[in-house]
Amino acid sequence: MLIDFFYTLRAAKLPVSVKEYLTLLEALEAGVVGPRSDNAWSLDDFYFMSRLALVKDEKHYDKFDRAFAAYFKGVEMVADFTKEIPADWLRKLLERELTPEQKAAIEKMGWDELMETLKKRLEEQKERHEGGRKWIGTGGTSPFGHGGYNPQGIRIGGAGKNKSAVKVWEQRAYRDYDDTQEIGTRNIKVALRRLRKFAREGHELELDLPDTIRSTAANAGWLDIKMVPERHNNVKVLLLMDVGGTMDEHIQRVEELFSAVKTEFKHLEFYYFHNCVYDFVWKNNRRRFAEKFPTWDILRKYNKDYKLIFVGDATMSPYEILQPGGSVEYNNEEAGAEWLQRLTHTFPKFAWINPEPQGVWQYRQSISIVQQLMGDRMYPLTLKGLEDAMRMLSK
Q: Residue 112 to residues 107, 108, 119, 146: CA-CA distances in angstroms?
């Protein structure tokens, strides 16, 4: 009965195997989760059990949350979250959930008219709306939204009258960037290679396996070992990445960059921060308060031959950069600007990569402040921007 759910997860590029799917069915058959005392099923219980059975790496939790919400609620399409909701798919979902009376009420408006109106509202609405009869929001009598009433409507966002696991998706924690993200183009890697610097280390020679095989085959099977000078990428990179908040809009591009960086640089150290660097950073977003790395330790641990690369949109309140206590998550004793200056003084080769379009930088005060703190070493997350940044770091 959950075969479509399985295909939805696969469409979302989740590495879910048939064996894991069968494990989920076995768990359901064994009654691991089941009806509550009121004989109603808990979607929350099924969410956690299915995630436990199907997802083996927590870096895929966010993809799973989106896919789960798409299948059980229909808010976003899985394969491409930017595309519109297929009308036929949403129609089937509504037919399964609505009562006969609600279906009859919708028929008065017409399925096609309802979907067309929803599409126009999504294009027109620019802000959250609460109450009222037209916009998508909470409360009120609009046909679209949640928490109100309209027999000819579509529930979007929020929870209904019954407990819903979709709230887990709506309140997603910061997630680690997926370093296995496939690169759609090799150009990012090519741009990063401007920073690579090869140097000999250890043994002067190493085995050239392809040439050895060719030479041995040409020599009638007599082993003919070929050696070549050993070469290593000697560049060391310290990568600090902003995560969460407004950076959610740039997840795909940052993941592509992160994947390329991990491929191109053998000596790579990376940490996360939120909005601005303060007195600690972290490596795992789900344990960011339990497993902290003091920024002072980062300054002491890595020497000045590391290339420091910040990745972030620098979009925040100026207060978060300039004032103690400016962090939105805790009461930091020193301003973020102090830590940025310490980092850039410790690592003379540094750059800031900004995924926000360069045309909007001048209109955001926080970007201007960070750009000034970086000594104008801020570059857009474009191929030209990456090439310029790598060229500057390689000098």
A: 10, 11, 11, 21
Rg of the chain, C-alpha, whole Å: 26
Look up the pTM and report it: 0.52
DSSP β-bridge partners for residue 256: none
The span from the CA of 93 to the CA of 86, in Å, is 11
Q: Which residues contact 101 (CB under 8 A, 6 or more apart)?
A: 151
Identify the DSSP state of 31: T
- Helix (H/G/I), strand (E/B), else coil: 34: coil
Instruction: Give just the sign of the alpha carbon dihedral 380, 384, 388, 389.
Output: positive
Measured over all CA atoms, what is the biggest interatomic distance in the chain, rounded to whole angstroms? 85
Sign of the dihedral through C-alpha 355, 360, 366, 368: positive
Instruction: List the helix and strand counts (H, then E) for the chain.
Output: 16, 14
Position 150 scores a pLDDT of 44
Q: Tokens for 145?
A: 């939204």
* Residues 168-207: tens digit of each pLDDT: 445 555 666 555 443 344 556 666 666 654 344 445 566 7
Provide the 10 A C-beta neighbour count for residue 212: 15
Q: How many CA atoms lie within 13 A of 362 on its CB side?
A: 1
Distance of CA 280 to the CA centre of its chain: 21
Q: Are 128 and 139 in contact (CB under 8 A)?
A: no
Tokens of 316: 């925040």
